[in-house]
Design a protein that fits this description.
The protein is mainly alpha-helical. The chain has nine helices and five strands, in the order H-E-E-E-H-H-H-H-H-E-E-H-H-H. The protein folds into three domains: 73 residues, no CATH class; 110 residues, Orthogonal Bundle (DNA polymerase, domain 1), CATH 1.10.150; 36 residues, no CATH class.
């Protein structure tokens, strides 16, 4: 009797388990939350070490009390996250008005495809299929009475949409709403000719070195060009 009561008084084991499922390519985990309820979810990886790291993060979040916020991302659709992203991370002063306009236009095409899908269930294969389809679509020409598709979209246009799609899960990962960005496993199939690097603003010391080495007849031109345009922050 005493032994039976001792067993009842022992705390319940709160570690988790990693296991494969026949209906999924990824490893799955299950563990108990702070209320003792079993939580089951995909680790979004086939690597046992990454799955173990995922499980440890979940257990640590449970102990820290942040698990409910993490799990709320499981029921978050792409459309809901897109609305939050455009409102909280796209508008000025977070981004420029031009960037917000580009993000809004990209979401117009992304939402019909991914809008109703849970953010955690968007796969690299689905993203690659979207890119492939968009690269073969015609460019939309707007007339007064209709929209006509002509030619093909430029890869740079599709790449802009992909960049927005990639940035949104990145933000979700930082906000602890998503474990990993599916775009990390996606490679854009076409080379994009334009450079996406940020412009370099010439500093005063760089200007001095260039003027010192430049021919005499170019020094005034260099000074005018730098003072009128390439200003440092």
């Amino acid at each position: 009797m005493e032994e039976s009561m001792a067993r009842k008084g022992r705390p319940r084991k709160l570690s988790g388990t990693i296991y494969p499922r026949k209906d999924s390519q990824f490893l799955w985990v299950h563990y108990r939350n702070r209320e003792g309820q079993i939580v089951t979810e995909s680790a979004d990886t086939t690597d046992p070490e990454e799955a173990e790291r995922f499980l440890r993060e979940r257990l640590n979040a449970r102990d820290d009390g942040t698990l409910p916020m993490l799990l709320s991302g499981r029921n978050l659709t792409f459309g809901e996250w897109a609305d939050w992203f455009l409102e909280k991370r796209s508008k000025p002063p977070m981004r420029t008005e031009k960037t917000h306009h580009q993000n809004t236009n990209a979401v117009k095409f992304l939402r019909p495809v991914f809008g109703s899908i849970f953010l955690s269930e968007i796969t690299p294969e689905a993203i690659e299929a979207y890119i492939e389809r968009r690269l073969h679509e015609g460019k939309r020409i707007h007339f007064k009475k209709a929209v006509v598709l002509r030619g093909r979209l430029k890869p740079v246009t599709v790449h802009q949409e992909y960049r927005v799609l990639r940035n949104m899960p990145n933000t979700a990962v930082r906000q602890k709403k998503l474990h990993a960005n599916p775009c990390c496993a996606v490679q854009f199939p076409v080379s994009v000719k334009h450079s996406t690097r940020k412009p370099h603003y010439m500093t005063a010391s760089e200007q001095e070195r260039i003027e010192m080495l430049a021919p005499k007849h170019l020094k005034h031109i260099i000074a005018i060009m730098t003072e009128m345009g390439l200003r440092p922050y």
